[in-house]
């Protein structure tokens, strides 16, 4: 085992990526309404931040083609995917395609797209954005939500997995 420490010792990006693949994460699709079309991304960075006031967060890559729309969005929808939605996760993780063409959705509050069959969803007002390296951390305040019962889709070690 190699140990790296000290203030000047920063992990290389590829090493950090390999290390963080050991963390299991829920799979979320974040959507918003663009000027001419809906926009969405798959994110494994979604997390609860605070209950008082209610806040959640997710990260958006500043280099992604969707970033300008998310950077200007006042509202977003967060969808926690169920065990049977790996295809949706892969679709929203693929660049250069119309992610909504083969995905069932409907317009929600503030015009944000709501994906059908999500295990849970939240419509949120963007509270603030924090630049953090090559990403932006979006802090958002949930305004409305819904959920169904089921097993979540999880991302671990570069693969989508389902809990038993």
TrEMBL record:
GO terms for molecular function: oxidoreductase activity. Residues 20-162 form the Flavin reductase like domain. It is an enzyme of class 1 (oxidoreductase). Its EC number is 1.5.1.-. InterPro entries: Flavin_Rdtase-like_dom, NADH-dep_flavin_reductase, Split_barrel_FMN-bd. SMART domains: Flavin_Reduct. Pfam families: Flavin_Reduct (PF01613). Coiled coil: none annotated. This is Flavin reductase family protein. Keywords: Oxidoreductase. It comes from Phytohabitans kaempferiae.
